[in-house]
Amino acid sequence: MTHAKPPETESANEALSETETGTLLAPGRAVELHLEVRFQDGFVALSTFDAEPIGCTIGDGTLTPAFESTLLGLAPGSETYVVAHGSELFSPYEDANIHWMERGDFPPDIEPAPGLVVAFETPGGHETSGVVLEVESDRVRVDFNHPFAGRSLTIRVRLLSVAESEPPLERAPET
Questions:
Q1: Distance CA 30, CA 40 (A)
Q2: How far apart are CA 78 and CA 24, in angstroms?
Q3: Could you give the CA distance from residue 36 to residue 23 in angstroms, rounded to a whole number?
Q4: In the prediction, which pLDDT does 3 show?
Q5: For residue 167, cis peptide bond before it (omega within 30 degrees of 0)
Q6: This prediction's pTM
Q7: Residue 124 carries which DSSP code?
Q8: How many CB atoms lie within 10 A of CB 50?
Q9: DSSP-assigned beta bridge partners for residue 140
């Protein structure tokens, strides 16, 4: 995993000190940011730059701990690029997360096709998504890995604001 500086803000982080910018990003602090995730072929898989920014508190589970660790110490107004493998930041790719499902397990209004992302509810009531890989007459092969797992990524992050969280975040126990 490496950080690369965006050309237009080459020394933005180096030029800003905590006293000049207020609060630097740290665990338990509230943050608003824009995020763009690109695959190695340039495909933009996710971007909030033309939408509402992501608002969360570092450590609340919105972002993965590995991804959060790449952002700690950044100042409001800074922009950075992270070059990493999705398996390092989001979830390891595991062949065991690919399953054949009965076609009848799909909602009747959904016609499975390769590349289609489908939301499923687990037996425990949690929502998860899967990407259809292959369709046969009575069954469908679905990849339940995180969509960024197993991919080389370039992630652009622009930090809009950092503040103490109100009320202070109660951190989840480590598992």
A1: 30
A2: 10
A3: 23
A4: 63
A5: yes
A6: 0.71
A7: T
A8: 7
A9: 101, 135
